[in-house]
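Page 47, continued from p. 46.
Same chain as before, 226 aa.
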Amino acid sequence: MRASLASAISLAVVALGLFFPNSFVLRNASAGTITPGVFELFNHPDGSAVSLGPYGLRLDSLYPPAGIGPTFSLEADLDPVLLTWYLDNTAVIQGRILNNTTNEFWQIEYHLTDLTVSANGFAAASGSGMLTYDDVGTPQSPIPLSGKAMDGAVFRFFADGFRLDDDEMTTVGRGWLMPLGHHHHDTTNDWLITATQVETFDVPEPAAVTLLVLGLTPLATRRRYS
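Result:
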């Protein structure tokens, strides 16, 4: 029995290394659980705390000196803004967002790479993308975006209710970035979003078996000593 259990654990570790090459970090047990798939994104209620109205993306550096905004709403278009978290440990945010100051739409495409995956989400070490004008007004130049690391991550996406009162389950995304060519000190440039999973991707079978083995191991141990 002990040999079988040890063998199962060894196989689990190998499978995790194959299918999750980045660290597999366990988080707060009270948090929710999410897996790769598609998430619909929303403005975070805490955005209203700075008197800008609800927003999901804030880029102070576009209006120097250290002004407030512009902010962008993720809920203004008929089609939702989506975050797709792929099985290869990459993710992308895509959709049409509204500049709350000019009332004009922009397209966002922001790629997240080098993900560290955990039971309730991921942290991305790298991020880059583009903000492209998508309205009927005077054409404007695209704005390249680059992630800015804080404590080793440019973006965190966890089911932990971050900045939500009495909530440790809702998925919240937050991160830091800079609009290239518009760098100004003492400005806020960040994501602050909530998310709802609308599609789940099937985990490759060996990885799914591994997770099952890890889940059953404590049960087997308890039975042996009961």
